[in-house]
Amino acid sequence: MHRAFAVFLTVFLISDVGRVYASRNLEIIPQQGEAQADATEAEAIKLMQEGLQLQKQGIKESLLIARNKFEAALVLWKKLGDKKLQAVTRNNIGGVYDALGEKQKALQYFNQALPLSRAVRDREREAYILNNIGSVYWGLGKNQKALQYYNQALPILRVVENRGMEATTLHNIGSVYNSLGENQKG
Q1: Of 86, 107, 151, 175, which sits 20 to 30 A from 137 (CA to CA)?
Q2: Within the chain, what is the greatest distance between any pair of CA atoms?
């Protein structure tokens, strides 16, 4: 198909009319690329929305399907070169693994999301990811490690003025101290 098109295009380029027509068609090529990117983005968004709905159900079967949806979306975000949404998607996949009890896989995805979030300067997402990493470590009984991540998230949340997540992080810090028997800090 491409070879036939190249031959056709070569014949057209011989005449002046062909040159004008070819130059007009060359202007269409970037637009077709944009349309392809738009379709890819639309598909990725659809997969993310479906994944989030499935993740909300919280049962193993829906979580597994959600993970597959997020992984498919991640491939598309990579294709589009969108690091911010790659970070969001990796964070979502990490959340699914955490909900499935696969803590090491969750950490793997959260730790992949973190530098992407930092690269695009998405401070709020960075704080969410740090909080998620802290929660996984807390779930693993690694309380000091959990506190390190929560304490990294807290000042960021204050800078971005996300009071709700700041309160959640303070609650998490207090819960860790409480589990350590240090109620006066919690």
Answers
A1: 86
A2: 86
